[in-house]
Amino acid sequence: MFKGIEHFAIASPDPQRLAEYYVATLDFKVSYAYSGNFFIEAPDGSLIEIVPSEGERPSSGMRTPGLRHVAIAVDDFDAAYHQLLEQGVRFEAEPYENEGNRLVFFKDPDGNLVHLIKRQKPIR
Fold this sequence. Notes:
about 120 residues; alpha/beta; 2,3-Dihydroxybiphenyl 1,2-Dioxygenase, domain 1; four-stranded mixed sheet; 2 helices
C-alpha cells in the first residue's frame, strides 16, 4: 500500500532562486513549477519541492528536532567535491570518512544543510 517517499519540501523565501541553485550546482532540473512552487529532480529521479516560506527561519543545528540535512549521493566523491569547490561552495569542514563512507557538509543559499556522500557499500 505505502510505496515510499515521493518528494519532500523545503520552504524558501525565494523558491526560484533556490531551485536555480540546485539546478546549477547539483545537476538537478526543474521538472514542474506552479504558483511559485518548484519541483526539482535529481538525475536519479528523486524530487524536492521548493515552496514559498512564511515568517522567520528558526535557528537549527545538526541535532535539533526536525529534518536536518539533504544527502546527495555521488559516484565520484573527489570529482564532485572539487567541482563544488570550483563553483565557490563553502564547506562546513573538510571531507571525512565514516564507516568507509566519504562525506562532506555545506549549506545551500537558504542555510539548509546538504551533504555529499559516497557509500562504500549501499545501504539497500
